[in-house]
């Protein structure tokens, strides 16, 4: 079987006395964009810093393509590109000077460095700014420079800590687009506490709540984490509420104004829907709309944030 791109094993970290993360385990085996989700202070940056080898964990191990970060950090880091929450830019340098410096830090050979810089500039859409001093670029373009240094050595695995934080809505769209392009050739993991960011960019989610892993799955699985417990119905000739309450499986009825009602149920949603449809036909309630009401991502996030492993 192929080596996972990332394997996080029993990872725990304590700053002085307080544990920031406890016993986190997960693997990433295929390409795509992974969202590391969690509320402020949940432990995302701590996890990312350890994965990238810039913070030494108290317990546990991180393997990048099978290489143990603790035992062989230089080799493990060759596979990783990292954009920390605060981009490590030298703002007095031009974009080109800075990327050349990054290429040398990444031990790209002198013969290859110009090519690597040009490629990174092009992939991040900043070729026309190569002679610009970084300080004079907008926030969105500075972030692109930060991403360019993260991919200059063509890593298999790119880690971005809150990459759209502080950008305006247009810049956010551009950076999301860039992240998706980068993910065509490698695996990207990005941290965020913004759900729309996950929906717009990611295919998979790992969620940390209060320092522990509380969810690991696809965005669709996250979306369906809480099964729906209400249906919305429109009954043009609705009966008295008491009659609706007698439909088997219905445990509550809410009037929403006009012919609209919310039915709360306890049984399997599909079965209740069938019963509501059948009863409406038999009793001629003139059912014109019926749909399950999905729980919002915010509700799933709130539920998982409370979860303790
Ligand atoms: N250097 C530090 N010293 C002490 N405690 C820290 C340190 N860095 C982080 N912490 C604590 O560890 C916990 C996890 O912090 P971390 O920065 O990893 O969370 P986060 O999910 O990235 O949050 P945010 O979204 O706010 O960046 C928090 O309680 C935080 O206060």
TrEMBL record:
Does the keyword field hold Secreted? no
Q: Which residues form the ABC transporter domain?
A: 6-235
Keywords from the named record: ATP-binding, Nucleotide-binding, Transport
User: InterPro entries, alphabetically?
Assistant: AAA+_ATPase (IPR003593), ABC_transporter-like_ATP-bd (IPR003439), P-loop_NTPase (IPR027417)
Q: Is ATP-binding tagged as a keyword?
A: yes
Which Pfam family, any one of them, does this sequence belong to? ABC_tran
Identify a single GO molecular function assigned to this protein: ATP binding
Where do the TM regions start and end? Answer: none
UniProt lists the family membership as follows:
Belongs to the ABC transporter superfamily.
Q: What is this protein called?
A: ABC transporter ATP-binding protein
Organism of origin: Butyricimonas hominis
